[in-house]
Amino acid sequence: MSGAGYVAAIDQGTGSTRCLLFDEAGRLVSLAQREHSHRHPQPGWSEHDASEIWGNVRRVVPQALSDAGATPADVIALGIANQRESCLVWDRRTGRPLSPVITWEDTRASGVVDDVVAAGHGATVLELSGIPPATYFAASRLRWLLDTVPDLEKRARAGEVAFGTMETWLVWNLGGGVHVTDVTNASRTNLMNIETLAWDSRLLSVFGVPEALLPEIRSTAETYAVCDDVLPGVPIAATMGDQQAALFGQTCFDEGQSKCTYGTGAFLLVNTGTTRPRSTTGLLATVAYVLPGEQPVFALEGSMAVSGSLVQWCRDNIGLVETAPRIETLAATVEDNGGCYVVPAFSGLYAPQWDADARGVIVGLTSYVSRGHLARGVLEATAWQTAEVVDAVEQTSGTRPDTLRVDGGMTTNHLLMQTVADVLDVTVERPLFSETVSVGAAYAAGLSAGVWPDLDALRRLWRRASSWEPRMDESAREHERAHWAHAVDRAKGWLTT
Amino acid sequence: MTRPVQSVLRAASLVTLLAGAGRPLDLVEISAAVELPKSTVHGLLATLRSAGWVEQDRSTSRYRVSHRLDGLARSVDPADLRSAATPWMDRLAAETGLEVQLAWPDRDEAVIVQHVYRPDNSPQRLRVGEGLPLHATALGKVLLAHARPGRPVLPDRLETFTRFTLSSHDDLAAESTRILRDGYAVESGEYFPDITAIAVPVRDALGDLVAALATLGSRDEVLERGDAAKEVLTCLVRAAGFVSRAMAMLP
């Protein structure tokens, strides 16, 4: 199709790299995807090969173009969304990686974090970066690399090495050696000051990171570079962390608007407007997006480690169901949970409890409880974890969203979505364009390149595909809430008793 | 070729029926479905039970296949169907600007498995789980036209919803013939006066009908010159093909 104007999005995720093309109505035109290998060389380690991922970008982008009958000349702008916090270092001269990509779930740098906390820097890091020191964020991994890769520290101080999260790596390769990151990704490093949105020398010294390593921090939607490879001549006009991209793709531009992505884990983000929120009650303060010349927009984030992965566990480890969607069919064979509650604290509890010593429990068992009740308990676990995060948001920000926009694979689970609406007592809405991460990257890039004039134009592209209204009565909700809280108490501190 | 043994054939049809039903069936339903007297069916079921192939629920007296045959009972699960179909339904709604529904046959109704709203952000209600009359909706008529003989059993008197509802069995039979010939069904104000729809079959990897997919809108949007609008039909048929392919990839 010649003369067509498309916006391309690359979604560099934990499992795969995808390229999606959207037309000017925001409709998906084509999608190409390629998985990459995921290595676990030691317990707690998690790595990708950066060259393999770059190679996949070089395959999926032309594939998406060819599926749409398009050429690079048809692409107006490119946006990138990426798995957050995963990072690597490479040689500035050759562009060759000097480390694997160490992913967000890798815990090898826990010693670094322990040292930072033991040295009394915990509060400083939280105050300046907005997030507590943790292996989840990139700084500890970078310090581990500097300590471990021969000569790296010396070469880094000499300016020979570049550090980056995944969008930085891709922009470097696409744009011929431009070394930039965007604010949303930088806000997940423990190194950026959340007030000034710049690298903070105090944070750099806490982690011993030479500034010469770091990319320049830029806004979310501006032209960082023009591609000289893969999409020659196309401006790279936006980059965002994947969860922020999903918030943007759900067009949650107003303070109080929120989205929850239900994948293996679940991520709930609430737009908190232009004032910086505090990471209290177990939530993380993060940057939602920064548009050039505008005030930064912040978000509170609550992550649930185990959501869809609980259903997968029921399928793979327990044999409760043959396919993940059938958990709903099984749960629908009964009217309620029969008194059975499942707390999936497989690796501790995340937001808002943050208890690393918690472990999963199934409680309330009687001879009455059947497979169907267990399936109900599994779905309700995701709903109640969402409710806990929303309650924490309300405590922190003083406002409770009246609507929750949802996306991700589990949104085809009708019973789960109804249960989320019931226990939150809010309307739950699923958008027509469910690839919200890529949609967000494309929207930001299209906004930057003038495909869409302003946020209002993007708001108008959002389309409701389904919605669920709460229909649980208050007394039943409070009864269930108390039982869930009771079950969570049973899970807490398991390793210490 | 050897002459088939009638009782084995009948027993096999009972197992197939129970395996595909998705819920336990009672004796009346089973004998109606296989068009055999209750006494004959009862005898066959008793034999299958003693062989351990069929189980009877003690409290309801309904029959189902034994758990040992679960692997054989490859009936479609509605949740799998919804999971596989949703991306293509979303795309169909975006392409056509119309409401999209997916239904599967359950007893004497077409039950909505997934529902994607008309993408105009107007207030709409999610209708997943709602049963539609087989004779008065495009989805139902597709399922009816492709149903096995004798299943489902329609009542003698067909309920009339609007003045366009087909209320005679002869008209309905002619409609089924037309649907099988054309490959799609049209609903023109037969259930709700202001709703027009086109529906097509969704098949599994073996070509058997598992569900029906429909686009719904106003008459002007869905029809041209009294028949299915070509552009809408093209999108609908393509989406049904994608859903079938996605179904075939299920474990």
Describe what this molecule looks like in 3D:
- The complex is a heterodimer of chains A (497) and B (251).
- Chain A is α/β, with parallel strands linked by helices and 497 residues long.
- Chain A folds into two domains: 6-241, 2-Layer Sandwich (Nucleotidyltransferase, domain 5), CATH 3.30.420.40; 250-431 and 463-497, ATPase, nucleotide binding domain (Nucleotidyltransferase, domain 5, 2-Layer Sandwich).
- Chain A is built from 16 helices and 21 strands.
- Chain A has helices at residues 50-67, 110-118, 122-129, 138-148, 152-157, 166-174, 183-186, 201-207, 242-249, 308-318, 326-331, 371-397, 414-424, 436-449, 455-459, 474-491; strands at residues 6-12, 16-22, 28-35, 47-48, 75-82, 87-91, 101-102, 161-165, 180-182, 216-218, 225-226, 235-241, 258-262, 266-273, 284-289, 297-304, 341-343, 361-363, 403-407, 427-431, 464-468.
- In chain A, the strands form six sheets. In chain A, strands 15-16-14-13-19-20-21 form a seven-stranded mixed beta sheet. A six-stranded mixed beta sheet of chain A has the order 3-2-1-5-12-11, sandwiched between helices. In chain A, strands 4-7 form a two-stranded antiparallel sheet.
- The model of chain A has no long low-confidence stretch (mean pLDDT 93).
- Chain B has 251 residues and is an alpha+beta fold.
- Chain B is globular and about 60 Å long.
- Chain B has helices spanning 6-21, 27-34, 38-50, 78-96, 138-145, 169-182, 219-222, 230-248; strands at residues 54-56, 63-65, 99-106, 109-116, 131-133, 185-188, 196-203, 209-217, 223-224, 227-228.
- In chain B, helix 2 crosses helix 3 (38-50), helix 4 (78-96) runs antiparallel to helix 8 (230-248) and helix 5 (138-145) crosses helix 6 (169-182).
- In chain B, the strands form three sheets. In chain B, strands 5-4-3-8-7-6 form a six-stranded antiparallel beta sheet, sandwiched between helices. A two-stranded antiparallel ribbon of chain B has the order 1-2.
- In chain B, strand 1 and strand 2 (63-65) form a beta hairpin.
- Helices cover 40% and strands 20% of the residues of chain B.
- Chain B folds into two domains: 6-69, Winged helix-like DNA-binding domain superfamily/Winged helix DNA-binding domain (Arc Repressor Mutant, subunit A); 78-248, GAF domain (Beta-Lactamase).
